[in-house]
Specification:
Porphobilin_deaminase_N; D-Maltodextrin-Binding Protein, domain 2; globular; five-stranded mixed β-sheet; 304 residues; Double Stranded RNA Binding Domain; alpha/beta; binds the ligand NCc1[nH]cc(CCC(=O)O)c1CC(=O)O; hydroxymethylbilane synthase activity
Length: 304
C-alpha cells in the first residue's frame, strides 16, 4: 500500500479542507493510505498584530512547505488565496479543487445592513481589500483589525467588540456555521480576493508521480480562471495584504476578469475589466494589472 502524508494547519477550517482533499484522494486512489500531519504556522500563532504588520508572503505556508522539504510530509493543502502568486521554484500546485462560494459575507448580530449602521460603527476585518471596498461605499463606518480563526472572530461580534464582520462565505460554509444575520457582498460593490473559495494541493516541484495522482482532483475551469486572477496579483508583486481584488468568470470559453485596486481609506478606487479566450488567461491578468497601474495604481501602491 502506498502512503501519502498531507501537511495541514491545525485550525478547524484547515483541517476540514485537508480532510476533504484526503477523502477525494481516497475516492480516486483506494490503494493509497492517506494520513494528516497537523502543524502550526506563524500566521496562526501571532494573533495580536495584523498580517500586514507581521508581514512576509506566505505566512501560513512556510511551516507546511518546510515539512515537505524535510520529508515529513508529501503534499500540503492550502486556501489558494493564502498562496503567493509568483511561481515557486521548489513547489508545484498539483490540483485546484472546484471553486466554492467566492463571496464575502457581511455578518451582524441583528441583520443591519452597512447603510443601517450608525456612523462610527465598528467593522472587524484584517484585510485591506475588504476595508478599502467597504469604506469606498460606506465611508461612515470604521474598520478595526480582527484576526484569529473564524470562531474567535464571531465571538468578538457576539460580545459587542465589533458591530459587523466580513468573512469568506466558503470558510463559514465549510465549517457549517449557519448564522442568521448574513448578507452576501457582491460585485460591483465588492469583489473577492484572487483565489477566494479555492482549495489547492501543493507538492515538491517536478514530482511526477504525485502530480499524476493528483491530476484527477484538478478542475480545469477553476485552474484557468485562477491563472487569470493570480496573474493580476503576480504582475503587481502583491499578496493578500494588498487592497487588491481580482475576480474571473468563464462564459463558455471566454474569461471575464475584473480587478480592483483601492486606497486603504477607500478614497480612490481603480477598476479594470478585460475579456478574452481562456487560453489567454495569464495575459488577461497581466493586462488588467497594467491597466490598474496606468490609472494611478503605482501611486496607491507606493503609499501602502
Ligand atoms: N485569510 C484567511 C482565509 N483564507 C481562506 C479563507 C476562507 C476560505 C477561502 O476563501 O477559500 C480565510 C478566511 C476568511 O478570509 O474569511
Amino acid at each position: 500500500m502506498k502512503k501519502l502524508r498531507i501537511a495541514t494547519r491545525k485550525s478547524k477550517l484547515a483541517l476540514w479542507q485537508t480532510e476533504h482533499v484526503a477523502q477525494r484522494i481516497r475516492d480516486h486512489h483506494p490503494d493509497v493510505e492517506v494520513t494528516l500531519v497537523p502543524l502550526s504556522t506563524r500566521g496562526d500563532e501571532v494573533l495580536d498584530r495584523s498580517l500586514a504588520e507581521i508581514g512576509g508572503k506566505g505566512l501560513f505556508l512556510k511551516e507546511l512547505e518546510r515539512a515537505i522539504l524535510d520529508g515529513e510530509a508529501d503534499i500540503a493543502v492550502h486556501s489558494l488565496k493564502d498562496v503567493p502568486a509568483e511561481p515557486s521554484e521548489d513547489f508545484d500546485l498539483a490540483a485546484f479543487l472546484p471553486r466554492a462560494d467566492w463571496r464575502d459575507w457581511w455578518i451582524t448580530r441583528d441583520g443591519a445592513t452597512p447603510e443601517d449602521l450608525p456612523p462610527g460603527s465598528r467593522v472587524g476585518t484584517a484585510s485591506l481589500r475588504r476595508q478599502s471596498q467597504l469604506l469606498a461605499r460606506f465611508p461612515h463606518l470604521e474598520v478595526v483589525t480582527v484576526r484569529g480563526n473564524v470562531q474567535t472572530r464571531l465571538a468578538k461580534l457576539d460580545s459587542g467588540e465589533v458591530d459587523a464582520l466580513i468573512l469568506a462565505a466558503a470558510g463559514l460554509q465549510r465549517l457549517e456555521i449557519d448564522r442568521e444575520h448574513t448578507l452576501p457582498l457582491e460585485p460591483p460593490t465588492f469583489l473577492p480576493s484572487a483565489g477566494q473559495g479555492v482549495i489547492v494541493v501543493q507538492c515538491r516541484a517536478g514530482e511526477s508521480r504525485t502530480l499524476e495522482m493528483l491530476q484527477s482532483l484538478n478542475c480545469r475551469d477553476t485552474f484557468d480562471i485562477m491563472c487569470a486572477e493570480r496573474a493580476v496579483v503576480a504582475e503587481l508583486g502583491g499578496d493578500c495584504r494588498m487592497p487588491l481584488a481580482a475576480f474571473a468568470r468563464l462564459d463558455g470559453d471566454r474569461i471575464l476578469l475584473e480587478a480592483r485596486l483601492a486606497s486603504p481609506d477607500g478614497g480612490e478606487v481603480l477598476d479594470a475589466r478585460v475579456e478574452g479566450d481562456r487560453s489567454e488567461a495569464e495575459n488577461l491578468g497581466r493586462k488588467a494589472a497594467r491597466s490598474l497601474l496606468e490609472q494611478g495604481g503605482t501611486r496607491i501602491l507606493s503609499q501602502i
